[in-house]
Every structure is written in structure tokens, then in C-alpha cells.
Amino acid sequence: MRSVGDHRAAVAALVPRRRTVDLPPEAAVGLPVARDVAAPISLPPFTNSAMDGYAVRAADAAAGAVLPVAFDVPAGRTDVPALPPGAACRIMTGAPVPDGADAIVPVERTDGGVERVRIDEAPEPGRFFRASGSDIEAGEVALHEGERIGPATVGLAAALGLRTVRVLAPLHVAVLSTGSELVEPGTPLLPGQIYESNAPMLASALREAGATAEVLRFVADHPDELLGRLAERLGAGDVDLVVTSGGVSAGAFEVVKEALASRGVEFAKVAMQPGMPQGCGTVGFDGGARVPFVTFPGNPVSALVSFEVFLRPALRAAMGLPDRSRRSARLAGPVDSIPGKRQYLRGRLTPEDDGTDSVSVIGGPGSHYLRWLAQADCLLDIPADVKHLAGGEAVDVIVLDH
Ligand code: AMP
Ligand code: MG
């Protein structure tokens, strides 16, 4: 049997590099910039006033001087004339400073006159000027490779007039469930049928981890149907990874195994519970590029635990994001574990007064107990060589915070 660590490494090796994509800045929040972007213009693009007041020549504007107001410059004026010597002009915050002016007198330091203005306090030259390029000069790096787009980056990109930014796209994963017993919600169940639940569950888990996911319509246990569904979708070359559920264990009609074992997916038993039957590899369709596949067992708990143990860490690492946090917790009661298999039990954490956590196992080990999985806020990670742990002993838990 393969160890959890070995299979995790095999899955991690399959996760491809992220594609680059040009997106409007506000659609790229959270994504890393793909490469340095130089500012196409300077900011501010023109020297403007930081205050509402009067633009003057400092030499004309001693305290007590009265100057004629030659014209007004509201924000947005695009045809600003030069300032005549000996005159002032009214100027608003963000409006372009006229040629000839070298100082701004804030309105509070004047009488606020409209045709003539009395200066109450002589201005310092250059004060209250926001010089062109004082924020960033055209040609300087505005967006740095690897930095994640946030609201302020969106603002900067927009101020620079950038309509799109090149970022690393999230990995895009197609999810496909298999099983002749599966039906869609809304259809009454016949005896022997169940509602398909793995694909929406895994797609949600993928999205929560930062990938994008699409659900392919599930297939019955017929290899041709499976291959047909995959060929139909994978031709476009825009799927980074396929996750399947079901059809990988040791019974008859193991559709994923039958269809993909000869096409490049390697199937292995991993020494863990739940989630022993696993597979991964790459598959080519119609001469297109080979697509990485990760195949999970169909039991819902096995499928989601497999995601948490194998795929989530690889995806998060590929996207430069931290994985789930782990911590040590004290067992609320004794636990038995299958020797030779690393066990992932569902648990609930309770904070204790001394700052530590205690953890209770909830539900049984059965891999179909979705209800308990839904109640769990952590997975206990019990090493393969452990058979029994007494209440009060420390265990490692993976915190499932959503
Ligand atoms: P399999 O791995 O295909 O042998 O399936 C193992 C168990 O999981 C069976 O009880 C299946 O009915 C169940 N199962 C498989 N796929 C799904 C699914 N997509 N949704 C819900 N249950 C499933
Ligand atoms: Mg099945």
C-alpha cells in the first residue's frame, strides 16, 4: 500500500502551473499579478492644487496684498490659460495649476473674494502643489509580479487607465461523478437509487479552496459513457484538472478504473481510512494536451476526506495560499484506530478554560455518514501505527474552518 505522503506527492506533481488571463482589475481581486506592469501615465497626470483657494505668484502675494481674480479653475477644466503677472485665479482641489503660478493660497487664508482677493498670509512657493508624477512617474512599476490584487490595487490600476490586468488565473477543475445508482435532485428515487451528492460537494470544496470548478453531468457505470463525457468537455483545452468520484475500488463495474487505467491513470491503495482506493495521472483526448486526473472513491466521506488530504494542499500550494491549519487537541474520550492505516476521523473541537482544545469524535467511521461530516469542524489525523488512544491524549487535528 502507498502511504498518504507518497500519494499526496503524486497528486501535487500533477497540479499544473496557472494560466495567465487578462481581467478587468475589479474582476481580479485576490489573484496575483502575472508580471510587472509599468505605469502608462504619471499620477497625478498634471500638477494640480491640493486645496480650494487661489493660485498666485508668491512674489505678488505678500500678506495684505489685494490681487485681481483673472479667472476660475474648477476641477475638470481642460483649457486653463497662463496666470497673468500680478493676478490670482480661483482654483479648486484637483484642478490644474495654471502656468505662471508657483503657490496656492488656501481660501481660509484670504477674504474669499470673487473679483478681487485679499491675501491674509503669504504663501510658501510650491506648497499645496500636487506635482505631476509625485505619486508615480510614467514607466515606473505600478503593479508588481506576484502581488495580489486588492481594492487599492484596483484603484491604482483604474487611476492609470488600465482596463485589464494580467493575473494568474485560478486553476479550473471539472468534477465528474460516476455511478448507475445516481439520479438528480427533483427526480423521485426508485429503490436502489440515490441522489448525486459528490460533485456539488467537491465543486464547493474546490471553490472554497480558491479554484474555479464546473460540474459535468454524471455518468452511469459504462466506460464508453465516461470517456464520451470527458472527450466532449476536454477538447477545448481550458480544464486544468479533472476530479472524478466513484468507480475506483475493487468491485465489478469500476468504471473509472476500467476506462482510465490503460490511458495513463495509476490506481493505488493508500494506507488510510476513509479513502483507500485512489488514482491519479494524466489522460490525453484526441491528440490534445494531456489533462491531469485525480480519482476519488465514491463514498461521500471518502471523497471529501480525499480532497482535504490530497488535493487541497496541492491546490493551495500551487496558488501560493496557506493550507488548513493544524493543531494539537486533547481527546475527550478513547479512540480505537485500524493499525496500518492513517485514520481521519470526524471531530468537534471545544475550547477549554486553559486555552487548549479538546476534541470529540462524532459519528462512526462509516464512509457514508454525511451528516456527521457536515457537523464536523475538524478531522482527527491518527497516525498509521496507532491502535488505541486514551481520553486526554493529544491528537493532531486539521481545522475545517469555512
Ligand atoms: P463507489 O466508489 O463507486 O464504489 O461508490 C461507493 C459508495 O459511494 C456507494 O455506496 C455509492 O452509491 C456511493 N456514491 C458513489 N458516488 C456517489 C455520488 N456521486 N454521490 C453520492 N454517493 C455516491
Ligand atoms: Mg460506483
What does it look like?
With 402 residues, this protein is α/β, with parallel strands linked by helices. It folds into four domains: 4-19 and 170-319, Molybdenum Cofactor Biosythetic Enzyme, Chain A (3-Layer(aba) Sandwich), CATH 3.40.980; 21-41 and 143-168, Molybdopterin biosynthesis moea protein, domain 2 (Alpha-Beta Complex), CATH 3.90.105; 48-130, Molybdopterin biosynthesis moeA protein, domain 3, CATH 2.170.190; 326-399, MoeA, C-terminal, domain IV (Beta-clip). Helices cover 18% and strands 30% of the residues. It is built from seven helices and 27 strands. The strands form eight sheets. Strands 15-12-16-20-19-17 form a six-stranded mixed beta sheet, with helices on both faces. Strands 7-4-6-5-8 form a five-stranded mixed beta sheet, with no helix packed on it. A hairpin with a 7-residue loop joins strand 19 (277-283) and strand 20. Helix 3 packs parallel to helix 6 (300-318). The longest helix is centred in the last third of the chain and has 19 residues, at 300-318. The structure holds adenosine monophosphate and magnesium ion. Magnesium ion is lined by residues 178-179, 221, 246-247, 298.
